[in-house]
């Protein structure tokens, strides 16, 4: 019965997060992404925020670097949270450490990705378009999965997302019939 309560709590929490939409993730991670990117550019250039260009636009010489919602990658943070919440048998303290470390790892990677893409754009790299599209379509997902697998190994997680819960629920119905 305790495990069933745990399942209901985890999936209920996930439903609440889903109902709130991605806005929460963008609200939290936009400033946590934009300001460090600006600070990195500030080491090498003289950037300014462009108030007339948009809230998250950085001007460096004649270049505009606009950090749009897709750059913040709110859905990647949601994906990490989903993987965490649909995996059973994780103590709350370990679960919180996993969420925190997963979000932090992705945030650092994302800041570096935007900074490197910005450098490629400023210096006119012929690889910019390819790299930008590759990371956009494939790289972010691969990195989220990589973060998850590293966490599974480091935190010694035995459950399989979704499957372990479904298997448990199915075994419970099988015993009753």
Explain this structure to me?
Helix content is 73%, strand content 6%. The protein is built from seven helices and three strands. The chain is elongated, with a radius of gyration of 20 Å. A hairpin with a 7-residue loop joins strand 1 (48-49) and strand 2. The mean pLDDT is 91. Helix 2 (23-44) crosses helix 5. The chain has helices at residues 2-20, 23-44, 69-72, 74-85, 92-122, 128-154, 163-176, and strands at residues 48-49, 57-60, 63-66. Strands 1-2-3 form a three-stranded antiparallel beta sheet, with helices on one face. The chain has one domain. With 177 residues, the protein is mainly α.
For the structure shown, list the relevant keywords.
elongated, 177 residues
Summarize it.
The protein is mostly helical and 177 residues long. The protein has helices at residues 2-20, 23-44, 69-72, 74-85, 92-122, 128-154, 163-176, and strands at residues 48-49, 57-60, 63-66. A 3-stranded antiparallel β-sheet has the order 1-2-3, with helices on one face.
Specify the number of helices: 7
- The total strand number stands at 3
Low-confidence stretches: none
Q: Name the helicity range.
A: over 70%
List the helices and strands and how they pair.
Elements lengths: L1 H19 L2 H22 L3 E2 L7 E4 L2 E4 L2 H4 L1 H12 L6 H31 L5 H27 L8 H14 L1
Antiparallel strand pairs: 1-2, 2-3
């Amino acid at each position: 019965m305790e495990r069933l309560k745990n399942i209901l709590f985890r999936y209920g929490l996930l439903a609440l997060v889903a109902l709130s939409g991605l806005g929460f993730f963008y609200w939290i991670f936009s400033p946590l992404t934009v300001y460090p990117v600006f600070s990195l550019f500030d080491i090498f250039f003289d950037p300014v925020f462009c108030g007339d260009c948009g809230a998250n636009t950085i001007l460096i010489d004649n270049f505009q670097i606009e950090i749009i919602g897709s750059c913040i990658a709110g859905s990647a943070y949601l994906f990490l949270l989903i993987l965490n919440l649909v995996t059973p048998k994780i103590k709350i303290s370990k679960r919180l450490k996993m969420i925190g470390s997963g979000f932090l790892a992705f945030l650092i990677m994302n800041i570096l990705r935007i900074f490197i893409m910005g450098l490629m754009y400023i210096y006119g790299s012929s690889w910019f378009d390819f790299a930008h599209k590759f990371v956009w379509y494939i790289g972010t997902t691969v990195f989220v999965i990589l973060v998850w697998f590293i966490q599974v190994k480091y935190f010694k997680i035995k459950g399989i997302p979704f499957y372990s819960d479904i298997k448990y629920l199915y075994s419970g119905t099988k015993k009753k019939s």
